[in-house]
Amino acid sequence: MSVDHETRSPYAPPAVPVPPPLHQMPVSNPDAAGSQLRVLGVLHHVLGGLSLASALAFGLILAFGISQEAAEGFSDPSGIGAIGMFSVIVATSLLGGALCIWAGLNLMRHTRPGLCTAVAALCCLNVPLGTALGITTLVILQRHEVRALFAGTRRP
User: Fold this and answer.
1) Prediction pTM value
2) Calpha distance 156→154 (Å, rounded)
């Protein structure tokens, strides 16, 4: 019996395909990067505005709750807890909205990349719109042409 070395065993691992040749990196386009940063800046403004609007709505609920609790002499512990909870929600919404708008301005001006990255990471906590915007911003901020735009407009 002769053994043919060309035949493969049915139990042998599959042959590894040869990968196609690597293409050159795409040429960086600073105009496209600038327009992407402008769009991200506008979207940060929109998310910040929505956050500030929600702070206004929760602030109205908070004011109504405080007036109701004041009429009862602040005797209900659950009412005081609700006032504390809504106070934290209003403060967080105000701070998040202001930071989001500030980051949007910096994205449009190509300044403070660290702030933009930190705010994009914090936006991920705002589910679902902030998560999508934050991840997209983080991905775009890692591109070389975007980094070059930020490096070219550093303040002294």
Assistant:
1) 0.76
2) 6
- Residue 115: predicted pLDDT: 96
Structure tokens at 74: 């602040």
Within 13 A of 4's CA, how many CA atoms are on the CB side? 4
Dihedral angle of Cα 92, 94, 97, 102, to the nearest 10 degrees: -110
**pLDDT band for position 156 (50/70/90)?**
very low
d(CA 53, CA 20): 52
CB–CB of 1/7 below 8 Å?
no
| Domain boundaries of the chain, sorted by first residue | 32-151
